[in-house]
Amino acid sequence: MDIENYDSSNLGLAYSTLQSSADRLDNDVLREMFAQLLTNTLDKTKNSTISPKFKSVLANMSNDEAILLNTLASNKYYKTGFPYLNFYQKTEANGKLDTATDIIGISNGEYIQKHAEISELEIDGIIKTKTDQWFDSGELADQYNLIKEDLNKIPEFSKDEASNGTLMFTDFGQRLVNAILP
């Protein structure tokens, strides 16, 4: 932060952020996120969008959630959204049995599967998943097929069907990312 951008109007929030970070100092990823949040809290060019909730969300975030958040926020699909898939097998009673859930397409058929972390980030209001909406054209639409092709090569998923969806950052999530990542 440039010294001319220093703003002392949020010193209380900065102090509270510093206190919240104390228990997370042993975690490199979260320590860096807290440091960026603290810096941006005192920067008049950035602090207008900072919520007091950001420190609470970070204080309760696991290392794996922080890593996933960082991975998604630094991805080229960050602004547009991510292909999101759930694989299932049909049961005899015309139901669905989930076999692989919470798969996120990150590029060129590459994907990650992070069930617990997605759930936690969704509970915190950082991301949202939709299974009734998906990308139907362009590069993002192609990702669904690339992931399906890759997973169908694995014998236990070869007969599975997939439902397409999207994973997107909420407005709150985008503001959080802007406050905690350089």
Shape label? elongated
Structural class: alpha+beta
Mean pLDDT metric:
86
Instruction: Kindly state the percentage of residues in helix.
Output: 40-55%
Q: State which percent range the strand residues make up.
A: 15-25%
DSSP helix count?
7
Q: Return residue spans where pLDDT drops below 50 for at least 5 consecutive residues.
A: none
N/C terminus separation: 11 Å
> What integer value in Å does the Rg equal?
19 Å
How do the strands line up in the largest sheet?
3-2-1-5-4
Please provide the count of β strands: 5
> From N to C, what is the helix and strand string?
HHHHEEEHEHEH
Main beta sheet strand tally, sense and closure: 5 strands, antiparallel
Describe the protein's architecture and organization.
By secondary structure, the chain is α+β, with helices and mostly antiparallel strands. The protein is built from seven helices and five strands. The chain has a five-stranded antiparallel β-sheet with strand order 3-2-1-5-4. The longest helix has 15 residues. The mean pLDDT is 86.
